[in-house]
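Here is an idea for our session: we take a single protein and study its fold together. Start from the sequence, derive the backbone structure tokens from it, and show both lines together. Once you have written the record down, we can walk along the chain together:
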Amino acid sequence: MHKHRATIADVAKHAGVSIATVSRVVNQTTTVSDEAAARVQASIAELKYKPHTAARSLASRKTHTLGLVLPEISGEFFSPLLRGIEAVVREAGYDLLISTQGQSNGRREARRPLGEHNTDGLLVFTNYLDETELTHLGRMGFPVVLLYRSAPAALAIPCVTFENKDGSRRLVDHLIEAHGFRRIAFLAGPEDNEDSYWRETGYRESLAAHGLPFDPTLVAVGGFDYQEAQAPVEHWLSEGIEMDAIFAGDDESATGVIEVIRRAGKRVPEDVAVVGFDDVPLSRHLNPPLTTVRAPIEMTGREAARQLVNLIRTGRADPLVLLPTELIVRNSCGCHGA
């Protein structure tokens, strides 16, 4: 009876380790514990496993290039993020390749121009690689660090983000405690966006902590977008829905909200207060200057790149890095802020 040639999956199963661990031992790409390495070597010998030489050559080839996958670069959010990433990548002696994964008919394009064939590791912004692609890379042991999203279940992929829930909670606490507002609307970000989920969670927790009911008619999608944020606010105003304040989800959508309120002949903050999230540079120059939450965007980029370089060089990275946020009080909420 013909016996099939042992595969890397056979070795992993026999040694009781992941395929990625076998790959690391075979290619000597990152550090593996002595015990695990010994089990893998024993299984290789017992099963007479012979790694494919071309695959070994490809796996061990170094490009000295890191990849960044993100949406089309627009708005003020991405400049500091890129600045932080580029600084660390340059200091570490790598080049940076950027792929802007556009949307086609409302869906992200399936192609993946960056990966194991042309980079040593990937930084992935939010959901711009789907779970299938991440699983593929994870099983290969290919270094990946996620920005602003947690890893899919069963995949140990590091994530770097900031404290959205805490920042949002403090912002809404301020509106309620400093100004006595009770009718606070919320504009969510894109569907399935984790930043938006945690900001809405902070909003809801603040309402509950102050004994205020959650009103679903005061929640709509603003998409973290200047144009998209305007339609739901126009609807609220045309329907005469009573609002003390609008938490716009991010600063870009807050800019659109302020414009709609002005067009309706109302004043910010005298008629409706407006607050945002991120503290992009434009926020302090709006009229009125925007009360918001300062998110460490550049620091997030730096930390994500640092984690990826560490993962490539040592095989280790922190599973989750959660950077702190800060409440920035200005005039748009009714305070005489900075």
Remarks:
- Residues 164-295 form a domain with the Rossmann fold fold (CATH 3.40.50.2300).
- Confidence is low (pLDDT under 50) at residues 53-58, 103-110.
- DSSP finds eleven helices and 14 strands in the chain.
